Amino acid sequence: MRVLILFKCLGSNSRLRHSVYAHLTLFENRDDYTCIYWNVANGCPGWLRKIECDVIVLHTTLLSARYGLQVAYDDWLKGLSWVAESQSLKIALPQDERYFSKQLCAWLERFKVDIVFSVLIHKPRAFEKVYKSYHGPAKFFPCLTGYIDKKSLPDPEFTRWKDRKYDIAYRAKTLPLWIGRAGQLKKQINDKLEQCLSGLDLVYDISADVKDTKLGTDWLKFLHNAKLIAGCEAGGSGFDETGEVTRYINNQKSKGRFPTFAEIDSKFGPQWDGHDFFVLGPRHLEAAATGTCQLLVEGQYSGVLKRGQHYIPVKKDLSDLCDVIKNLDWDEAQEIARKAYCDLVLTDKYTYATFANIVHSIIADEYSVVAMTLTGQKIKRFKVLSKMTKLINRAGILTQAPHLCKLWLKSKLLPRQ
């Protein structure tokens, strides 16, 4: 199967979160898929639309561009008009669907998407709210925000678990107000942890400072060095269908004002907040994969994590957090980490390889798509393009793709415009 993956990245992939990069390259888990990656931040040259492929994937990073300024991105979208005209099967992988959802629905229709993988299908009320303005033909299928990338995982080394550097670890940042009131919980957890850990004979590394963010494989190493990681569900409570809330907050900030939730409620009504868009995040699976016990605010976690079995629960108001930490049973914590590893990782149920197989089954069975027959020269062109874009990814220079166009043209592997 020949796949063209369209994504958007303004910087080096070395600055991407590990979960984002693993998500982008999920089809590398299948030997029968040949993938070409194109960063639309560089524009779309004429020869790109001439590539013959079976599937076009609109990656999360591309669809997230809908958060941008309307005028700028209307012009930018014109360069992708060929996607709608393509006869290839088109797959969309949106996330943060609750933001600019009206724009997302319009894009799915504009690109004539055939398949949408949504993280909200298991939440019918939230799903209906987000996609009420969509009137296209696409079929929707469930997915998670991320999966386990087994190729890059360190051994959890449970026999040396108690020798890990940190007893408790935590990383977060202050989230923007348009996430909703629930988005402030991550910073509240950090502040409460500082209060609870003060004076205790525990080694910890916690921070809500963006400068302490761990990216790439550094994040996995950080998890692997901790016995326990604190956290909560991913997602938020705010619903910004048209982007008005986000634009208002940003406009006020540009003027040196920082609006309160009360001011936002007064302008847009309290109904913009208080929704349930909470889901399992990539961090939860990564913690399970590194054998790190999770101390989490109680929640549904997309039905994947079970309280008391896969994580140690604390109340949503954090009122019992200090008591839970003081009374931690480290043997029990290790067993919870081990069970999460066995149930979530060893079963392969939540790996990128499994998700890639699910996507393939839908492509082949639901849509009866089979790899097109190409001539030897066309197959060679596609494989060379695939190898070149993979080299770009591994080198961490996603923004340098235009320079490779000259190499491809000189090699005459692609027709001149």
Can you give a write-up of this model?
Helix content is 38%, strand content 14%. By secondary structure, the protein is an alpha/beta fold. The protein folds into 2 domains: 2-147 and 351-410, Rossmann fold, CATH 3.40.50; 150-239 and 274-346, Rossmann fold (3-Layer(aba) Sandwich), CATH 3.40.50. The chain has a 6-stranded parallel β-sheet with strand order 2-1-3-4-5-6. A 5-stranded parallel β-sheet has the order 8-7-9-12-13, with helices on both faces. The protein starts with a strand and ends in a 7-residue tail after the last helix. Mean pLDDT is 87; it is low at 395-417.
State the end-to-end CA separation: 26 Å
CATH architecture of the largest domain: 3-Layer(aba) Sandwich
What is the count of β-strands? Answer: 13
Secondary-structure element order, N to C: EHEEHHHEHEHEEHEHEEHHEHEEHHHHH
On the 0-100 scale, what is the average pLDDT?
87
Silhouette: globular
How do the helices and strands line up, and which of them pair or pack?
Elements: E1 2-7, H1 18-24, E2 34-39, E3 55-58, H2 60-63, H3 70-78, H4 81-85, E4 89-92, H5 101-110, E5 115-118, H6 124-130, E6 139-142, E7 166-171, H7 185-197, E8 204-207, H8 217-224, E9 226-231, E10 234-236, H9 244-254, H10 261-268, E11 277-279, H11 282-289, E12 293-297, E13 312-314, H12 321-326, H13 330-346, H14 352-366, H15 376-395, H16 401-410
Parallel strand pairs: 1-2, 1-3, 3-4, 4-5, 5-6, 7-8, 7-9, 9-12, 12-13
Antiparallel strand pairs: 10-11
